[in-house]
Predict the structure.
Amino acid sequence: MNNTIKKKKVIAVNTRFLLDGRLEGIGWFTYETLKRLVAWHPEIDFIFFFDRPFHQKFVFADNVTPVVLFPPARHPVLFYCWFEFAVNRALKKYQADIFISTDGFLSLKTTVPTLLVIHDLAHVHFPEQVKYIEQRYYNYFMQKFAQKAARIATVSEYSKLDIHQQYQVPLDEIDVVYNGARETFQVIPSDAQQAIKDQYANGQDYFFYIGAVHPRKNVHRLIQAFDQFKQATNAPLKLLIAGRFAWQTGQVKDAYDQANHQEDILFLGYVKDEEAPLLMGSAYALTYISLFEGFGIPLLEAMNCKLPIITSNLSSMPEIIGKAGLTVSPTSISEIVLAMTQLYKNKDLRKKLSLKAEQQRQKFSWDLTTQRLEKSLRFLGL
């Protein structure tokens, strides 16, 4: 009689971006996919590696063991120490069968098969917008990480091709899993919309931007275009900009200082998780004319609200919105102004884009993302 007890499969996960009250792109991806994987696989033990004290809400179920590994990894030297020493040791200690890292970094020393999630290669295309020490780290390690990974997941076909071309990873080793959007982003009733407009925009309609106020996000040209749009149309619209200042730059301030319609340009700062869906759902249109995105989650959040979109014709953005928005050259102020004017003057166009958004959004959800991630994990023995 064979009394051997079969060992439960153990999946270790880099969860250092699960930060209470500060979830952004990578954090939301980690949160939404892990919450589902843990629930769907009660037969698996999950070990969550944090780099600092964590909130208990991130321990999703009894099959999750949270572990804090020293040191906090928020600097290139500490990145190296955390992944190559702390993570490597913990993978051995907990006898992990698979390691999932959702932030593009991994341990080069480990022999545990790693599913690496690379969201984009912005540092390759915009090196001047990355701090010097971090850029050196990326230049030295990122290709090594990509080639070390047993499997790579990414969030768009654009990023898949970019990873292949930049790091010589075979296309058949890269899976596109896309992103989802929180269920709180949805169409909201007109009376609730008006309450939001009253609270944030003096009761008026508004173009909306949400995201980091960073040079790559092109907010200064958005401000310039909005100012010209107001000058040309005198439309009773405002521009609301929601997001933390991730970069100390003069471009946004200069654009604002030079604007003739400063009273109609409102900076909201970082908005709370419960506020963002209300602001998005009440907007006239999303204006998201970033210079580069691996996916661009606000685009999907807007589509879930059936909101017309103005976005860039670069990188992944046309792929994500399909026919649900107007695409412009992000460096052309005149094209951005024209798109704003078209949305303002053409109600039929707004209605058409809203219907297209309803169709396009069906291609994305966190359930679908997690299912695609599961397929990637099967290559590693899930």
About this structure: The chain has two domains: 10-180+366-378, 190-363. The longest strand covers residues 45-50.
